[in-house]
Amino acid sequence: MEKDINIYISGMGIVFHSGGILKEIEEGQDFFATDFDEPEQVAAHIKKGDIVGFCTGSGGDYILKFRKGYPDADIVERYPIGARLAIVIDDGKLYIKDLFELMDWSRYCENILELENGIYHITLCTQVPQSGIYGDDQEIYVYLQELEEMPLLAWEGVPQLCE
């Protein structure tokens, strides 16, 4: 798997989810205010793997570089800002959204990655763009490694992909 997805976000973060969460959220619902506004709520969802989000530090243009497995030492060295999450894929799709889209939930999603059903470790790797401005065509590597079971994740708040 090697796929790049360009995404513009107006919010301060990006969220991934699969189809299971679509059954729980009504069209137009402000899911952010009810279920994703507090760091503890974000951490609870991350630990379940139903909808996972991370703070980018800024809105802007991002290039999500999806890859299979785990990053090698070269990527980790060149893209030292990172986080490790996990997600459950239950409908063959990974949906990719701007955090602000959770304020007016829509089942429509412009950015979708096809994946086999299962549990995936997500390793995020990025760096501050050369301009020094977060969201200025910033690359984020998103490595996906299939696992047998949901890992124990230690997040108590919102994962940060900014310094």
Structure characterization notes:
With 163 residues, this protein is mainly beta. Helix content is 13%, strand content 40%. The protein is built from 3 helices and 9 strands. A 5-stranded mixed β-sheet has the order 1-4-9-8-5. The longest helix is centred in the N-terminal third of the chain and has 10 residues, at 39-48. It is globular. The two termini are 29 Å apart. The model has no long low-confidence stretch (mean pLDDT 94).
Distance between the termini: 29 Å
The tally of beta strands, per DSSP, is 9
Instruction: List unreliable stretches of 5+ residues.
Output: none
Beta-strand residue percentage: 35-45%
Order of helices and strands: EEHHEEHEEEEE
Radius of gyration using CA atoms only? 15 Å
**SSE-based structural type:** mainly beta
Q: Report the helical percentage.
A: 10-25%
Query: Strands of the largest sheet, in order across it?
Result: 1-4-9-8-5
Separate helix tally: 3
Q: Whole-number average pLDDT? A: 94
CA-based shape: globular
Q: Major β-sheet, in short?
A: 5 strands, mixed
Task: Give a topology summary.
Layout: E1 2-9, E2 13-17, H1 31-36, H2 39-48, E3 51-55, E4 60-68, H3 73-78, E5 81-89, E6 93-98, E7 111-114, E8 118-126, E9 138-147
Main features:
mainly beta; four-stranded antiparallel β-sheet; 40% strand; 163 residues
In short:
13% of the residues lie in helices and 40% in strands. By secondary structure, it is mainly beta. The strands form two sheets. Strands 1-4-9-8-5 form a five-stranded mixed β-sheet. The protein has a four-stranded antiparallel β-sheet with strand order 3-2-6-7.
